[in-house]
Amino acid sequence: MKEIKWTGAKGEALTTSVQYPPVEQTNTYIGISTVKVSKSEWDSWKSFKCAVDHQNEENSVKVEKKPSIPKIILLREPKGNNQILFCTVRDFLPKEISVKWTKNGKDENGTTNWDAQKNGKTYSTLSLLEVPNSDWNSEAVYSCEVSHRGKTYTRIASKVPITVTLKQPRAKEIFQNQQAQLECVITGQDKTTVEKSQITWKIDGRTQTSNTTESAMSDGNVTTKTSTLTQTFDDWLTVKKVQCSAEGEDVSPVTQEIIVQKDGTEPKITIYIPAEQKGEKIILMCLVSSKVKQDYYIAWTDGKENSNEDYTDGITFPPEKTENGYSVISLYTTTKTKWESNHMFHCTVRHAGSKEVFNSSVSRALDFLNATLSLSCVQGDPEDDFSSLWSTTSTFICLFMFSISYSVIFSLHQMKKN
Q1: Which domains does the chain show, CATH number per domain?
Q2: By Cβ atoms counted within 10 A, which residue in 14, 58, 196, 236 is the most buried?
Q3: Model confidence over 134-178: pLDDT tens digits?
Q4: pTM of the prediction?
């Protein structure tokens, strides 16, 4: 083997090299050469070349100190009449770096920058920009631009660059397919920003890369990207926390999480119907309550109880604190025709961390409907209220206020039947 040669960044020969005799290993030879350079040269990011001429063919490799790419996070904190934007830059090497801010593409003055500080083997720095609420509310776009070793990295902040919504598992999938299916939905007006955003899932701190699917769609000026994570229900029973994060080249991470609330206390389930059944739709309300806060998965069936084919998701609201504990409301809409033909409707409930199933049923034909509590708690035209799901809120609040009285009537009737 011929001599191994070392050269500097300008092609000059390095005379501090040492070459060792070749070593035979499995019918081949290994040549080793080392070179000493000063720490100042190494820290100045000079490059060096190791080359060898073997069988009239030169092979070489470039040796240089590897830079550490900066990690950039843009944070916001409201303060009185202003918004404070923090651009944190961490774990970069070498020390030389520049940070600037722009507003709608134009340079922004009045920033506060900190000198880069040594943090272990790398450096970190911070830049701050104070923004008036009037500018922030105008949906101006602010950018933190970091330049390091000839490359520029950008993070964007605006009032609504993207929103991230993490949805609870669909009850229908849990009951019908024995799966927990979670959706992480990114929404924004900039189509490119939304589509290029990367969605990351974590379950109990561990990143999930399998059993996920993604889709994107645009509707007018709004673009939506959805990532779906699917787990078996057996696996879901052990989960404590789920996190979904969206991050892009120009977007700082936005994270949502679900803390799975599970206690195992048996819930109380009661179904209510509107006192005044006007129009062609009947809205049923399933009230699930317990003394402790826990997550409930509520699905409806129309007809056969515990049918494996006919589970339907209602509209389920987040848990609410009550005087005696917590309650969850789920709404189900059916037709007046079905109601008057004496269909049986079932509210089926599971609480997090358990496979146990609870049910409550209602039908027009049941005797206890004769004791339906009449309420006069509708504002305006009752028919208009029940024609729109969102305008029924006041009625459901009143139903909840009278739930204790209703439960007493139901219990008395059951005692009479027995």
Answers
A1: 4-64 (2.60.40.10), 71-157 (2.60.40.10), 163-259 (2.60.40.10), 268-417 (2.60.40.10)
A2: 236
A3: 988 887 889 999 999 889 999 888 776 678 899 989 999 999 999
A4: 0.56
